[in-house]
Amino acid sequence: MTTVPPSVRRRPGPALAALFLGTFVMGSAELVVVGLLNLVARDLAVSVDTAGTLVTAYALGICVGGPLLTALTLRIRRRTLLWTSLAGYVAGNLLAALAPGFGTLIAARAVTGALQGLFLGTAFTVAAALVPPERTGRAISVVFGGVAVSTALGVPLGTLAAQHLGWRAAFTAVVVLGALALLATAVCVPPVGGPGTSGLWAQSRHALAPRVLAVLGVGFLLMGGQFAAFTYITPFLEEVTEVSGTWLSVFLFAYGAATALGTFVGGRAADRDAARALVGANAALVAALVILHVAGASRTLVALALVVWGVVGFGLVPSLQYRVGLLAGPGRDLAATLPASAVNAGIAIGAVAGGAAVSRGGAADAVLTGLLVCAAALPATWASGRLRPPAPGRQPAVLAGEPDTKG
User: Fold this and answer.
1) Whole-angstrom Cα distance, residue 47 to residue 208?
2) Is 128 within 8 Å of 398 (Cβ atoms)?
3) 164-179 burial, b if ≥16 CB within 10 A, otherwise e?
4) Its pTM surpasses 0.85
5) What is the pLDDT along the chain (407 residues), one digit of tens a residue?
6) Which residues pair with 158 in a beta bridge?
7) What is the 3-state secondary structure (H, E, C) of the chain?
8) ∠ CA 138-327-262 to the nearest 5 degrees?
């Protein structure tokens, strides 16, 4: 039997840092392409809207490919999955950097999206096994923190480099950083967190139980509402708040920095009471969007609302992940990939809903749409907090840090 060494339990920092680096690389690669669309379109002789399908392909890879890959690899040790998915991710981005045409590039994006979904779910399970149960939320927040920090730091830097060196340079940087993350994972992460049950059917039965789907539905609504508004926050700030140029960058940076901070704050909140933290985050989201809708012309209030929004909008993710793992019980390994699917589906549908609102009444209507969706989600979020784990006799390994019985 392979166990988590006591020294790792006492000092999980290096292993968690390796997982943070891995998710930082993947978060940067996922979103940096948004700033490269014009460059890709011009270089590969496609339209900008066609180039935009690179975002869709990646999101579909996470939503669909991540759970499928996880289902196919349930019997593989978690540590092995971490480094093999990272190795595949590096190879996929190398293919993207060298892509001779758009077809190759979009295929590479779909595959790397699926590998990100696999890595994220596995990393959440492993991170939770590295720490005592009362620190599970904080461990989850470190893993997701890589994505949040990449939004505030990695994406702008990657976009800036691409503007000077070409879009392929951004993918090359991902390959280099990904190789470092792969080395760190191989060296620092011990073998932990084996499968809770041996069969796909047993995992699916628990991972797709109504109680789990209810919490995933809450995550879908909360992210959908946020991105109905956030997708069009730049035109909102320009048209309603009347900020532009440097001030526009300052407002967006404040939001980005708040998301990074909120992720780690959210981890502590999840450890205290994940269900209550979700309700509180939902209520704070509604309040922030109300301020934007009612007082969008006030720069001070808008800046305050954006900071609150950033803190709770990403800060709710550790609690969402925590609740899904808890409620899935023995199906935790498969369930660990599902929050990312729900979040990305919410982002995609929310962006479409926001676009429809903009076409009717401008960016202010997109904010109103996000507000209505988040407000409608509040009763469901409260009700989901009353759901309880499946078996009273056994704590799920994602909370207890159960050792890997498969060696």
Assistant:
1) 39
2) yes
3) eeebbbbbbbbbebbe
4) no
5) 344 555 455 578 899 999 999 999 998 888 788 777 778 888 999 887 788 788 778 888 898 888 889 888 888 888 899 999 999 999 999 999 999 999 999 999 999 999 999 999 899 889 988 988 889 999 999 998 888 888 777 767 777 777 788 889 989 999 999 999 999 999 999 887 554 445 677 778 888 899 999 999 999 999 999 988 887 888 888 889 998 877 887 888 888 889 888 988 999 999 999 999 999 999 999 999 999 999 999 999 999 999 999 999 989 999 999 999 899 888 888 888 889 889 888 888 888 888 888 888 888 999 999 999 999 999 999 999 999 887 554 444 333 333 343 33
6) none
7) CECCCHHHHHCCHHHHHHHHHHHHHHHHHHHHHHHHHHHHHHHHCCCHHHHCHHHHHHHHHHHHHHHHHHHHCCCCCHHHHHHHHHHHHHHHHHHHHCCCCHHHHHHHHHHHHHHHHHHHHHHHHHHHHCCCHHHHHHHHHHHHHHHHHHHHHHHHHHHHHHHHHCHHHHHHHHHHHHHHHHHHHHHHCCCCCCCCCCCHHHHHHHHCCHHHHHHHHHHHHHHHHHHHHHCCHHHHHHHHHCCCHHHHHHHHHHHHHHHHHHHHHHHHHHHHHHHHHHHHHHHHHHHHHHHHHHCCCCHHHHHHHHHHHHHHHHHHHHHHHHHHHHHHHHHHHHHCCHHHHHHHHHHHHHHHHHHHHHHHHCHHHHHHHHHHHHHHHHHHHHHHCCCCCCCCCCCCHHHHCCCECCC
8) 30
Look up tokens 């969706």; give the residue: 373
Q: Could you identify the residue written with the tokens 């919410």?
A: 346
Tell me the two tokens of residue 288: 């922030």
